[in-house]
Amino acid sequence: MKMRKPCKGRLSNVVLKNAKYWNGKSFELRSEVRLNACEGSETTEFDCNGALVLPALFGLGLDFMEPLRDDVYTFADGFEAMRKGGFYGGLYESAANPIDDADKFTAMVNRFKTEELGGKGFEIKFLGAYSKGFGTDSLAEMVELAVAGVAGFGDGSSAIPHSRFLRLAMEYGKMTGKRFFFQPMDKTLRHSGCVHEGAYSDMLGMKGIPRIAETIAAYTILETARFLQVPVHFKQVTCGETLDLVCRARRVGIDVTCDVNLYHLLLDDSCLETLDSAYHILPPIRSAADREALWQGVIDGTVDAISVNHTPVLRQDTVVNFEDSVPGALSLEVALPAIWNKLVERVGEQRAVELLSTVPARLAGAAPAKDNVIVLSPDRPHMVVESDFAGHVCNSPFTGKELPSSILATYINSVWTEL
């Protein structure tokens, strides 16, 4: 018989009634599902009324900004958002706080572990920076970071450096065997652009970012990876041309994986007509044709995972002119109810679970969801309000919009949360 650990804190045993439970291949109706936390904890019964009980999610692209910007968001806010959205873990990389040496990595890990509202049990993996301060002057101590336990090396979602520095970084990092995570974006072609370069940017007079800003950077990275035999991952691919490059690279033996952001699958640049800065997301939301190309990549398997890229922005930095606003969007709390139905319609339930939970965790070298689950009602619409979000920020394109499904409850790290 399996021994249960002694109970501490807010842990709960849960009995789910009338649930469609994910058995690893499909949902099967069960009259009762027991989720046991520990001896001595209270037991909660919850009638699912036929709702889905699926594995908790793993988020690619977490950035809680703290400690440099704890006036914007805190680790506690991030953990609350993860519980609300049903995320048991994620891959963390802060643009504001590069982890460029072993001491910073240790400090970050310890901060996560000691946070009152959720450090215990969250499956958090970290990307180390491959350069000091995400700059192009000196390399980070990648060997020390790899020994300390980083999942790979990232760029802080900034534009790629010049080719010589890129080669030096990947050449040094190759010794660790870790994967490099890039957001492919050419700095000079992006320049001061903030939206997709196309009909809407022309109509509105906004500075655009062309597709070639992504494809030229992607090609440079792939050629360097081929030359050095280094594994790479592309974050937030936005257009079909980049996916074509990924397919060709795989055919010649390059180890390349990629993800697509939630919002790039659900939106297109027609949203710019509103001039709402909530749609200021980088890399930019592209055209309807680009969105469909990304969906085709999800369907045919070119896209490995769907990312969330949770980036909090203060209200005063969003209620300004679009081009003056700070880019970024919250997504943890709304990701699953926003995309689940459409994802299942396109690729089926098993592939949907893989894209949102299994594969993201595998890419980060994290453990699977195990007993962490989400109770989702796929047919109950939900109107997104500001109070749905943790902390005091609510920068999401879906604020004030109706989502097609609703999260009823989550069970994350043995903590039961009803919404």
Overview of this protein structure:
With 419 residues, this protein is of the alpha/beta class. The chain has one domain: Metal-dependent hydrolases (TIM Barrel, Alpha-Beta Barrel). Helices cover 30% and strands 21% of the residues. The protein is built from twelve helices and 19 strands. The strands form four sheets. Strands 5-6-7-8-9-12-13-14 form an eight-stranded parallel sheet. Strands 1, 2, 3, 4, 15, 18 and 19 form a seven-stranded mixed sheet that branches. β12 (232-234), α8 (240-251) and β13 (256-261) form a beta-alpha-beta unit. α4 crosses α7 (212-228), α7 (212-228) runs parallel beside α8 (240-251) and α11 packs across α12 (349-363). The longest helix has 17 residues, at 212-228. It is globular, with a radius of gyration of 21 Å.
Strand order of the largest sheet: 5-6-7-8-9-12-13-14
Content of β-strand: 15-25%
Share of residues in helices = 25-40%
Named CATH architecture = Alpha-Beta Barrel
Q: What name is given to the CATH topology?
A: TIM Barrel
How many domains comprise the coordinates?
A: 1
Major pleated sheet: 8 strands, parallel
Shape: globular
Q: CATH-wise, what's the superfamily?
A: Metal-dependent hydrolases
**Strands, count:** 19
Radius of gyration in whole Å, from Cα? 21 Å
Given the helix and strand composition, which structural class is it? alpha/beta
N- and C-termini, Cα separation: 33 Å
Integer average pLDDT: 92
Number of helices: 12
Q: Supply the CATH class.
A: Alpha Beta
Low-confidence parts, pLDDT < 50 over ≥5 residues?
Answer: 1-9
Offer a quick outline of the entry.
With 419 residues, the protein is α/β, with parallel strands linked by helices.
